Amino acid sequence: AALDGLKDSLGQVERGATDAAQLLAAQFQLYSGELNEALRVVESLLPRRGTADTEKTPVQLRAELLRAWCGLRLHATAVAQGDPRRGENELEHAAACFGDQRRAQEARARGESNQSPLQAQEPDVLLGRAMMHEAQGHYTLACDALSLAVVTHPWFAPALTEKARVLMFAGDWE
Question: The whole model's pTM is what?
Answer without folding.
Answer: 0.76
